[in-house]
Amino acid sequence: MNAGILAFVVLFPILAGALVPVIPYKKHLYMEWYVEGVVLITAIASLVMLTHRPQEAFVLFRLTGNLSLSFQVDGLGTVFAGLISVLWPLATLYSFEYMKKERHEKEFFMFYTITFGVTLGIALAENIVTMYCFYEALTLITLPLIMHTLTRESMLASRTYLYYSLGGAAFAFIGMVFILTYGTTSSFVPGGVLDGAGITDKNLLYLIYVICFCGFSVKTAMWPFSAWLPKAGVAPTPVTALLHAVAVVKAGAFAAMRITYYSFGTDLLRGTWAQWAVMVPVIFTIVYGCSRALKETHIKRRLAWSTVSNLSYILFGVTLMTPLGLLGGLCHMVFHAVMKICSFFCAGAIMYKTDRHYVHELNGLGRRMPKVFTIFTISGLALMGVPGLCGFISKWNLARAAVESAQPLAYVGIGALMISALLTAIYMMSITVRAFFPGKDFNYSSIENAEDPNWLMIVPLFLFVAAIIYFGLNSLQIVRALETVAAQLH
Fold it and tell me: Is residue 65 part of a domain?
């Protein structure tokens, strides 16, 4: 396949998305058709490209010397690009119904569509310069989505998001310069590009890695950089679902994988103080995020703190610095995306149909909105790691990787996973219990107008929950595919 398709799947949604607010649609429905058409064309082209990989990189343009903006498909990029290509069309379909109550729809869908292309740019980046440029662009293009409602709360949240993201990018930039100076190439190479021969002080290498890892991990909301993510929940639910499940946070985890396994190299890092320096805050964040979720009463912020915890599951696999650890991280990156976008969309449907935003307001709604709350319950069970659902598969692989790594700190990580599972059961199932069992004295007439949403919201939810169950029962094929990606680094 011609390498030019790499540029198409990145640039087409960016350019077509920019036209959303300027096209004179005769009907509102035509705008929805246009947006969904752009997203579907991009997603189909992306999936075809991933199944028929171009063998060569595509150079968009050269910056200076050997530095260029280039795209290429490899195993790790296939996982991330495939994930967002499958989820984005469904998320867009859901957003059509949700955004009917919001203002400035054209501007919203412009940035929403452009974000698809920018995220694909990160997934398909051939070198660290390209990834960094699109990583920065992701911050700028998602900023208007967070401040979409233009309320004081959304403006403060967007400011916090910008400060954290730019600070993290500055740290990541230091790592990029280091790699460009001492690496054999700017491209991503399995095993890394730092041979260590030109570095007299290994502690400097370790320090730069820790700085770079923390910089990219800002977008994964690793402690102490967690505050921006729950605040971003003020954005419309289609935005927060993508922020917390697919685009922004997974871009941070993906970048952490790239620099650890493809730039610095695990052979240089494994067993050093740099590995412990990044693993300790990751393990802490697993428990910290769940603890904050347990205390939170706002539905979306509770799910946001849950995301904080689950993202560090992925980083825990990364910091094990073994192929099996990367497998566990990749499994959770894929399965968490499905589980969390499902739970966020359920929360959005509840808020859309009832205008209720807090956990204590959900009493009895399970009887009026049985589809939404049943799906929410299944996604909650999956996040807990109940066998038969996809969350169990990723947690099992992470625990197995931790045991086989034979690292003392990794055993602490297993303990953190167990504590997290218990806390997740409490903060997710407490919502289910309230919804279905409000008590014998509950007045159902107070919620008589509540009902399940229409097909635009329900269809994506059914597909997500079907994927949760399917991959929980038939995970062998996808796990073997991810195992092949991880094995390339051995």
Answer: no
